[in-house]
Specification:
With about 325 residues, the protein is an alpha/beta fold. It has a single domain, classed as Alkaline Phosphatase, subunit A (3-Layer(aba) Sandwich), CATH 3.40.720.10. The protein is built from ten helices and nine strands. It has a nine-stranded parallel beta sheet, with helices on both faces. β4, α5 and β5 form a beta-alpha-beta unit. α2 crosses α10. The protein is globular and about 50 Å long. The termini are far apart.
Length: about 325
């Protein structure tokens, strides 16, 4: 496994977004290697890319968990860095602008999906991957058309246009999509249209671990499911499906449970959610540890402030 953990990184408007361009270079590099059919395969650039977003994650959240858990998977990666996203039109980005910067390599306007300083659409990461022959996937603990995830496959003036974001998944032609059920899918009859395109449709989270189809749309209800349990099944289905690709895959995982815990300033909640995230990353880390063809990147797309370490002995 080629591993990189990037929790936060300071980037000014004139600089390049490190995560996007790292992944973009990997995609372009792998594409060039695939064209050299007569050359020996060296895997100097990875065949597969897994980008894990810990939405809202910051160093203070990690320090809280380390009060009782000294060894974190998030700190075991070979390379680490610091990142702080910004919006083009504001010092503090909203979730959509922060994700847009990571997904396109361009500073974006707040309240929009993937629009640059001129209001023009930037090419999303998953579209670039698809154009270079990759199989693509999305796994989210929230809805598939959330403002945090949509910038990786579409552009839009309104980050809350959930119906349009759901419809955009059809145009993006993402191969595997697993997340929670969203009303936006009904607006354009998205599920039925995916079924017409021979996607395996899953509506029961309990059935996820059994699915190995190459094209899956799973918009499930997880209200009565333990987060770790359904995530494990979701990851296994995603991994089994994408691993069938001979050309490699690009997978974006959005872990969104940590968005609210900062403002609540609840230490127990922080430790629970960050602990769950670390266990989820550990699962992927174990799957790919001895796989030199897979690059794993873990990053917070932005830091959800409001959490203070206090009343600690």
């Amino acid at each position: 496994m080629l591993a990189m953990s990037i929790i936060l990184k300071r980037i000014f408007s004139s600089q390049i977004w490190a995560v996007f361009f790292l992944v973009a270079l990997m995609i372009q590099g792998c594409s060039s290697q695939k064209d050299q059919s007569n050359s020996q395969e060296t895997h100097k650039t990875p065949k597969n890319i897994i980008l894990i977003l810990g939405n809202g994650l910051g160093f203070d959240h990690l320090r809280a968990l380390k009060q009782e858990k000294s060894s974190l998977t998030l700190t075991k990666f070979d390379v680490s860095g610091v990142m702080q996203p910004e919006a083009y039109d504001a010092l503090i980005p909203d979730p959509a602008a922060a994700s847009s910067a990571l997904a396109t390599g361009q500073l974006a306007q707040n309240n929009t999906i993937g629009l640059n300083r001129h209001g023009n659409p930037s090419q999303p990461l998953l579209q670039m991957a698809k154009n270079n022959g990759y199989t693509t996937g999305i796994l989210s603990t929230n809805i598939l058309n959330s403002p945090q995830l949509a910038p990786f496959y579409t552009n839009h003036q309104n980050f809350k246009a959930y119906g349009d974001h759901a419809k955009a998944l059809l145009d993006a032609k993402v191969d595997v999509m697993i997340g929670q059920r969203s009303p936006g899918f009904k607006e354009h009859k998205v599920t039925r249209k995916f079924e017409e395109r021979d996607y395996e449709i899953v509506e029961d989270a309990g059935k996820l671990g059994r699915k190995r189809d190459e094209k899956i749309l799973a918009a499930v209800t997880t209200k009565n499911k333990k987060n770790g349990e359904w995530l494990q099944n979701a990851w296994e289905s995603t991994f089994k499906s994408l691993s069938k690709s001979d050309k490699g895959y690009c997978l974006v995982i959005s872990y969104e449970e940590m968005l609210a815990i900062g403002s609540n300033n609840n230490l127990d909640q922080v430790k629970q959610q960050v602990g769950d995230f670390d266990e989820f990353v550990k699962q992927i880390y174990s799957y790919t540890l001895n796989d030199s063809k897979t690059l794993v990147i873990v990053t917070g797309n932005y830091h959800k402030g409001g959490f203070v370490l206090n009343q600690l002995n």
